[in-house]
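for the record, two folds in this file. i put them one after another cuz i was lazy. first one right below, seq on top, C-alpha cells after. the second one comes after a little note so u can tell where it starts
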Amino acid sequence: MCLALIFRLSNNGAKRHLLSINCTKFQLFYYSTAPANVTNSSNLLVDLLVNSVGFSKEKAISTSTKVTCLKPGNNKPNLVLNFFKQIGLHKTQIKTLVSAYPGLLFSDVDNTLKPKIKVLQEVGLSGSNLTRVITKSGALFHTSHDTCIRNLDYLRELLGSDVDSVAVVIKRAPWLFSRNLPKIMPPNILLLERVGFSRIDINKFFLNHPLGMVQKTEWLESVVRRVEKDFGIPRGSPMFKHGIEAIVNFGESTLKMKLEIFRSFGWSDSDILTMVQKLPYCLTASEAKLRNGLKFFMNELGYKSTYIASHPILLKFSLEKRVLPRNEIFKLLKEKRLLRRRLCLYTVVSYPESKFIENYVLPFSWSKDAKPVPDFVIRCYVVHSCKDIMLFPLVKIEVKFKGMDESSFNYEATSAQVTEFFGVCSATSSVICLVNTMFSNGRSRS
C-alpha cells in the first residue's frame, strides 16, 4: 500500500519524501510492537503450562512454540484443564496428554471434547479404563465427530453384539477412531477369508493385532506369502494362522535381524524352518530373550540346534523366572539320585507351576518320621524364583500335604523370614539353599 502511494505521488518530491518517512515510521512501529505482543502471549501460555500442568520452564517454552499464542482473556485452556480433571484425569495424565497434543488446550469443551468422551463411554469405557484410553488417544480429539461415529458403528457391525470386544479393541488401539475403518478393513477381511480364516478367527485376529488389520492389503498379502513360501507353512496347517499372527507386525528388517540371531549360533535354514513350523510365536520373543536363551541352552547345556528347533517352547519360557531355578533343583535331584525315573529338563520346565512344586519341591520337604522343614523354607522357591506366579495355589497345595491353615500364610512375613534365613535374595541361590537344606536334614518323601 505504501509503495503504491509513493509511485502515485512521484511527481511531488516533497510529498513523496514525507510519505516515505511516515511509512518507515509505521513499519518500525509495527515490527517493534508485534513481537512484544507475541512474546507476552507466549509468556501467558508458558506460565499456564508451568503452574497448571506441571511442565518445566524449558518444556513449557518448547511446547508453546507449537500452538497458537494464548491471548489475554482466552479462558479455553483453563476450561479444558478443568474438564480433564472432572472426568478423572490426574495431573500426570493431563501432562502426558498436553505434551503429546498441546493443541488440545484450545479445544471447545462443549462442541469437541464432550462429544468425543461420550463416544468412548458408549462403548462401555468408564473409570480408570476411560482415563487410560483418553491419555493414549489424543488423535481422537482431532478427528471429526462424524468419523468417530462412523468407525464405532463399523466396529459394532464387525464384532457383533459383543460389546466387551469393542471396548477391548478401543482400549488397545484408541487411534482406530482416527482411521477410515469402513474403507480400509473390508479388503483385508476378504483376503483373510480367502486364506481360510473364519469370521471368529478374523475377529480374534483383529482384537490381538488391530494394527495388522488397518495396513494396506498389499502388506497383508506379503505376510501371507512369507508364511507360505518362506517358512513353508501351508494354509491347511493349524500353524498357518499362528504364523500370520506371529509376523504380521514385523517389518522385513526386524524379521531378518531375528533370523540372523539363530544363524549366528550355527542354526541352519532347515533348523529355523522346523522351529517356525512347530511354534511360529518363537519369532515374537525379543532379540535379547532369544540371545540369552540360545546362550544358555547351547553354550552352557550343550543342546544342539536340532533339539531346540524340535522343542521350541524352551525359547518362550522365562529364563530367569522358570528355566534357571528349575534347572538348579533338577540338577540337585539328579546328583542325590532322588528321581525315580529318567527325566529331561524339557519335561521339568514344561510342568505347570503347581505341578512342579507338588512333584519336585514338596515331596522332599518332610517325611513320616521327621518334622517338616520350616514353612518359609518350603515357600522360598516361589517367593524368589517365581514372582510372576500367584501364591494362593501354593497355599492350597500345602494345605493338601501338610494340613496348614490358610490364614497362617503371610507373604510379607515369609519374604522377610526367607531373606533372614538364607541371607540371599537371588532366585538361583535361594533354590540351591532350599534343596540343600532339605537334603542336609535327610528328609525325603518315602
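(here's the note) second protein begins now
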Amino acid sequence: MSITGNYDHYHRSGSTGSGGPDRPERCACCVRTMKWFPVLFIVSVIGWSYYAFVVQLSFFTVTSVVQRILFLLFYHLILIMFLWSYYQTVFTDIGRVPSRFRVPRSELDRLLRATSEEEQKQILEAFAKELPIVTRTLNASVRFCEKCRLIKPDRAHHCSVCGVCVLKLDHHCPWVNNCINFTNYKYFILFLGYALLYCLYIAFTTVMYMELIWSVSGREGKVDGRFHILFLFFVSLMFAISLVSLFGYHCYLVLLNRTTLESFRTPIFRYGGPDKNGFSLGKLNNFQEVFGDDRKLWFVPVYTSVGDGVSYPVRCFDEDAESLLSGEMASGHHLHHPSRQHRNGHRVGGRHNDYDGEVHHHQYRNGSAVHSSKRDPLVHRVSDNDEDDDEDEESVFETTVFSHSANLLH
C-alpha cells in the first residue's frame, strides 16, 4: 500500500474537463438509467409468466374448477413471497461504513507526508487502535480505502459500481441493481429460493398439460395460447436449472459464514494469518447470523440478521490445544486448532496468543461478548508484490457479474 504522491487525489475537488459540468452529469444519468434494464427485464419476464400461467393455463386450459383454484392459490402464495423478496433485495439501502472509520484530514496529511510504507502503516495502525477490526491486507497493514479515505471494517470492501465502501460486501448483482451485502443478504438468499420454487412450480404444473394443449380437439383459444404455455415451460425450466447452482452455492456460503469475495480472496487475520473459515462459528450459528434467532421469521423477507455489520465474532486459536496436538511449532508456523462454543452468551473460541495491548470485544445484540482478542504487532512480512485491494475486488466483481449473467441466461 502506498499513497505517496496522491496529494491531488485527496485535496482537489476534481476538474470538470473541457466538456463542462453538464456533460458528466448527463452521462452519469444515462449510466444510472441503463443499470435498471436488467431489473426491468426480470419484471417483464415475471409479468409475462403471470399472464401465461393465470390466463392461458389456469383459465383456458385447466377444466377442473377445484384444480384451477388450487393452482392459482399456491401460485399466488409463491409469487407474493418471490416478489416481496426481490423488492427487498433491490430497494434495501446498502450498508455504509460509519463515520468513525473515516480518516480525518490531519491524518491524511500525515499519510501523504510519510516517506515510507512502514511509516504509513504505523499511522494507520495508531488511528485504528480503537476500532473493532481484526483483518489486515497482504502486507499486514490496516485495510485502508484510498477512494473513500477510511479504514475498512472487517468484511467491508469498496464497490467499484456503487463507488462506496459497503459492509460485508458479497458482490454487486446487476440483476437487482444493488450490492449484495450485510443489509440485504437474507433477502437475496430468499429471493433465489423463492425464484427457484416459482420456476419449479410452473414447470411441474405446465408439463401435465403439454400433450393436451397440442391435441386437435381443444377449446377455442387453446391453440392460440399453446405457444405461451410451451415457452413458459421451457423458460421456467431453464431458469430453474440456473438457479439451482446459484442458490446452492450461496446456501453453501451461508453455512460456512463466507462471502463470495472471501471465497476468492482468503481473509487475513492479524492474529492467525489467512483463514477462509475465520468467521465460521458452526453451521447453525452461521445460519442464524444471517437469518436471525426467531425461527418463525427465517423464511419471511423481513430484517432479522444478527449484528451491526461492522464487527463479527471470529474463531479463536487455543494455544494450549495447539501445544498438545503438535508438541511444538512446525516449520515456524502454528497449527490452527480453533476451539468454539455456542455463541449465545458465551465466548467463541479459546485463548489468544499473549500480545501486549488493549483488549476489545465483538458483541451480538444481546450484549454478550463472544470474542475477545488482544492488540498485537504486525505479524506478517511486507510483501514486495502486495496488490491494491480495490483493484482485486473489481476483478472479483467482474467474475461474479459474468457468472450471474451466464447462469440466468443459461
